[in-house]
Structure formats: C-alpha cells, structure tokens
Amino acid sequence: MQSVATPLARPRRSSSRRLGGSAGFTLTELLILIVMLSILAALALPRLDYVRYRVNADARNVMMTMAYAQRLAVSLQHNVQVTIDATNRQVRTLEDRNDDGQFTNDERVRGFQLTEGVIFSRNGAPALPSPAPNNEVTQITFWRDGSANTAGVVFLNTTRGVARGDNEDSRALEIVRSTGRTTWWTFTGGAWRRGT
Prior knowledge:
By secondary structure, the chain is of the alpha+beta class. The protein has a single domain (51-194), classed as minor pseudopilin epsh domain (minor pseudopilin epsh fold, 3-Layer(bab) Sandwich). The protein is 26% helix and 23% strand. It has three helices and nine strands. The longest helix is centred in the N-terminal third of the chain and has 27 residues, at 50-76. 25% of the residues are buried.
C-alpha cells in the first residue's frame, strides 16, 4: 500500500488585516490631515474673489432674462418688455398681452434683484468694440418676431469697482436690435472681451 502525500496546510490570514499591519487611520494621522487641509484653505480663501463671481452670475441672469423674454415674445405672439431699474437694482419682465406698454391685472410680471454689491453702472468704461450703438438702455421691448425695439447696452459693475474708480469688475450686455440677441462682454486688462 502506498502512502498518499497530503499538502501542508498553510495558516489562514485574517481578512481584517491589511498590508502594513494597520487596520485604519490613527487619531494622530487624522489630526495631521485636518491641520494640513486647514492651512491649505487659509491660503486659498483670500485668493477667491466672491464679488467677481457675483457680478458674473448677475450678468448671466440678465442675459438669460433677455433670451427668455425674446423666446416668450415669439411663442406667445405679443410684446414682452424688460425693464432695468438701476435705482432698486432690479430687472422686471412684463408679458404685455395687449401690446400697450402698460401693466394691467391680467398680465404677468416677473423679476429678480441683483446680488449684494452688484449695481447697474457704466462707471466711465470705454465703448464696446462693436459696430452696434453703445447707448445705455433701461427698457427693451421684444417684438413677436424676436427682434428688439432698440439696440443698446446694459452695464453692470460692483460697488467695490465704483469706489476704487476702476472697471475691472465691469460687465456689459449688448442687445442687437434686428435679432434681439444678447452678447456678454467683460472688461479685463483694460479692454472689453467677449464673455464665455
């Protein structure tokens, strides 16, 4: 009778053990990580410019309001007015059902307020480098065909920029009369550039 060799049994590893013999992070390692993240945050936060984020967001909101008013005029087949109220820092949209230019109880008005620190102001910024007129507009009416009643520009700035006397926070929204299209401009490096 021959004896059958049995393989040697290997000791089983515990499934809870990891490479390096550590099952997790120690309290000291977590504290070091928190301190490192705090130092990085303290270095990065002063570099964030929240005021520029706000003026960019409001410029996009005004531009989207113009595009919405244009589409609404085409789809509802009546005039839609957008009013820029610089005193109260508001934008209002009137769905003018009877095309009389006046608000009545059966017409809807929508609007929004600019964020804190953002105002409607040209602040002496130079003219836009475009052939369209650079006159400031306070009211735009979009007709049924999508065109606007006037061409012009809506300027936004910050109270900080006006107080400093510079235009680095300036944004401009140019409305083309024939198409009703709005283009966003930003003032950086001493010149106007198309925004993205």
